[in-house]
Design goal:
Blueprint: E1 2-8, H1 16-29, E2 37-43, E3 48-54, E4 68-69, E5 75-83, H2 86-95, H3 105-122, E6 127-135, E7 140-145, E8 154-158, E9 161-165, H4 168-171, H5 183-192, E10 205-207, E11 212-217, E12 223-226, H6 230-239, H7 246-263, E13 271-274, H8 279-291, E14 297-303, H9 311-321, E15 324-330, H10 332-336, H11 342-345, H12 355-366, E16 371-373, H13 378-382, H14 386-398, H15 403-414, H16 418-427, H17 437-448, H18 453-460, H19 466-469, H20 484-488, H21 492-518, E17 523-525, H22 531-539, H23 553-560, H24 579-584, H25 588-594, H26 597-603, H27 608-619, H28 626-642
Parallel strand pairs: 13-14, 13-16, 14-15, 16-17
Antiparallel strand pairs: 1-3, 1-9, 2-3, 4-5, 5-6, 6-7, 7-11, 8-9, 8-10, 11-12
Helix pairs in contact: 2-3, 6-22, 7-8, 7-22, 7-23, 8-23, 12-21, 14-18, 15-17, 16-17
Length: about 650
């Protein structure tokens, strides 16, 4: 795991000395991603620089240093990630006569490219990777991002200068660029609490899409192609389902997961796993034990507030599996100490509040190991989110009502303001207790007006309505607005899973894990997102994903072979924090400063009166607007640091 960056300046806008200085400053900006070593490769004649920060995991010797040259001298690589299939590829290359100077996966990738080409190589790779390769002969740069988007790549072409990096902060080191906020990206962020790929917070800067190869001729324009397409994989899997009984499907999945987990235990440094006590992390740890005769180290955190504390569940799993378990009970003050670090960590706006506990567990884990396996991906692949069943239930009930009745009811509910509904319910609260009646009724009104089931899903995954918060600003357009999805995925569950796999997973979950783990130089590996597991999951019948109201049914069957069901059977908990209370208590002054009329007015992006009304209602406990306010707060904190 590492940090990468680079510059291609064919028109020599940057002097040789300045190119060296820029590469060095980009290198320093990524130090947290790779504290074990760093280097810069320069070709002043071509105006090219490649930067690498090293977190040494495999082949700790100097033979694993990057940027690295191929044996024939043609290719130079700067690469971030881990390829778990490198031993098989190495044997194949050795059989063809290729020699090696070390045992790193980087060298295998490089020599494979020299023999098989870029596309022929990346299709052989099992793992997570962001790869930059400079072809010295053809003067061509190639960028590659792994299939699921586990590792990040940002890129931009500014006045003829092409730059790329693992994080935006490295691009900001170029003094010839004046970053400008893109309002449309802010609108999308306010809806989703992240900025959807391929967009970024800045005009003219892009995220490389998962499963994509970008090619840049030395004095030409970038072009891209997919080497793995999640949508096509899903369509093919649905059209070619496995026709096996439950036992055979469980056997097949367990066998592949054992291989995926086993491959990710390859390391020349100490290794462990995050353990929350939920289905996914418990399964990963159980399979680690099954593939490893030695002890497995597990790590979890707990909170003082009982409703947010999963530590007892994790401890029970650890005892059953016999792991070397480390638990940290986090006080509110320790958690709050993370808040000022977030804007630096996430150098574009990001507001999934579970970023706080994810950072805390990463920081604690890094004190003991350098690599940690994580259970992310199980919800998207095996239908674990509550919203899947909720959306289906809502749509089924809505279709029982004629359209004119739904629209009439929606109009009536929306005609009364949310505040007025709250006042009405306050009168009869003793008879009809509810936390946020006005908001709930307005949400119901919006659902009554939808014309198709996908709109319900979009409503449920939305935070702010950008049209209300940012009048006159359009959102960025992507797969969530693609109406052809419904044609290709007529089944609602399939459609929701595909949308989550291509949006929420890479742009929220994997972004959160990458930034928080890399902030403390910890490598996080995600075996459930082995692309072979993803492809297998799409061939699984829907009946083994949700059965009798039980989500992730098939994953549970695999887990039950290793852990008693009673240890994991409980209502789903998110990795949450008591955000609402924090904003009314210890974070109140910090939030008040960021949400002041003066500050919001300076940004000139939001309806200040609307934000202030939500803040005042939250403080008075009239409504709980914690998560919507967190979106605004994380944007303003980011703007304070980077804007």
């Amino acid at each position: 795991m590492c940090g990468i960056a680079g510059i291609i300046d064919p028109n020599r806008r940057i002097s040789p000395d300045d190119l060296t200085g820029l590469a060095d400053s980009m290198d320093r900006s990524l130090e947290h991603r790779g504290p074990d070593g760093h280097d810069v490769w320069l070709d002043h004649d071509a105006g090219v620089a490649l930067v690498h920060r090293r977190l040494a995991i495999v082949d700790l010797s100097p033979a694993g240093r990057q940027p690295m040259h191929s044996a024939d001298g043609r290719f130079v690589i700067s690469y971030n990630g881990e390829v778990y299939s490198h031993l098989e590829i190495r044997r194949e290359l050795e059989a063809a006569g290729q020699g090696f100077g070390g045992h790193s996966d980087t060298e295998v990738i490089l020599e494979s490219v020299a023999r098989y080409g870029i596309t022929g190589t990346v299709r052989r790779l099992i793992g997570m990777f962001a790869i930059a390769i400079w072809d010295r002969r053809d003067r061509t740069l190639t960028l590659v991002r792994d299939r699921l988007g586990i590792k990040p790549v940002y890129w931009a072409k500014i006045d003829g200068v092409f730059m790329f990096a693992s994080e935006l902060k490295a691009l900001r080191e170029y003094r010839g660029w004046t970053p400008r906020i893109r309002p449309e990206a802010v609108a999308s962020y306010m809806r989703h609490n992240y900025i959807p790929t391929p967009h970024t917070i800045y005009q003219g800067v892009h995220k490389l899409e998962p499963g994509t190869i970008l090619t840049l001729p030395w004095n030409g324009e970038p072009s891209s192609e997919k080497f793995w397409n999640a949508r096509e994989i899903a369509i093919d899997g649905i059209r070619n389902p496995l026709r096996e009984d439950d036992t055979e499907l469980t056997d097949r999945l367990e066998s592949l997961l054992l291989d995926a987990v086993g491959k990710r235990m390859m390391a020349d440094v100490p290794l462990g796993a995050f353990l929350s006590g939920g289905i996914d992390s418990s399964l990963v740890v159980a399979l680690m034990k099954a593939t490893n005769s030695g002890p497995v180290k597990t790590f979890s955190i707990g909170f003082e507030q009982r409703e947010f504390n999963e530590a007892p569940y994790a401890a029970a799993i650890a005892r059953h599996l016999g792991t070397e378990h480390t638990e940290l009970m986090v006080s509110s003050s320790e958690a709050l100490d993370v808040v000022p670090k977030l804007a630096e960590m996430f150098d574009e706006p990001f507001a999934d509040s579970s970023q706080i506990p994810t950072y805390l567990v990463s920081a604690m884990t890094r004190k003991h190991v350098t690599v940690a396996l994580s259970g992310d991906g199980g919800d998207e692949l095996f239908a674990g989110y509550n919203r899947y069943q909720l959306t289906s239930n809502i749509w089924r009930k809505l279709t029982l009502l004629p359209g004119f009745m739904r629209k009439g009811a929606a109009s009536g509910l929306a005609s009364v303001g949310a505040d007025q509904w709250d006042n009405i319910f306050a009168i009869v609260r003793r008879y009809r207790p509810t936390a946020q009646p006005g908001r709930s009724l307005h949400k119901l009104a919006s659902l009554l007006e939808v014309d198709d089931s996908t709109q319900i899903y979009r409503q449920l995954v939305s935070h702010w309505d950008p049209a209300a918060l940012m009048p006159g600003v359009s959102e960025t357009v992507g797969v969530l607005q693609d109406d052809t999805i419904q044609h290709d995925f007529p089944n609602l569950l399939d459609r929701m899973q595909l949308l989550d796999l291509t949006t929420y997973l890479p742009d929220d979950i994997l972004t959160k894990v990458d930034r928080t783990s890399m902030a403390v130089a910890l490598e996080a590996r995600v075996p459930l997102l082995d692309h072979r597991v993803v492809e297998l999951a799409w061939r699984m019948p829907r009946s083994v994903k949700i059965r009798n109201g039980k989500t992730k049914w098939l994953l549970r069957q695999v887990l039950n072979r290793h852990v008693p069901a009673e240890l994991v059977e409980r209502p789903k908990m998110g990795f949450g924090v008591p955000l609402a209370d924090w904003l009314r208590g210890p974070l109140r002054d910090w939030a008040e400063n960021l949400l002041s009329e003066k500050r919001l007015g300076e940004a000139g992006l939001f309806d200040t009166a609307l934000v202030r009304r939500y803040w005042e209602q939250h403080l008075s406990r009239k409504n709980n607007w914690a998560y919507l306010l967190w979106d605004v707060l994380m944007f303003e904190a980011w703007r304070e640091r980077w804007g």
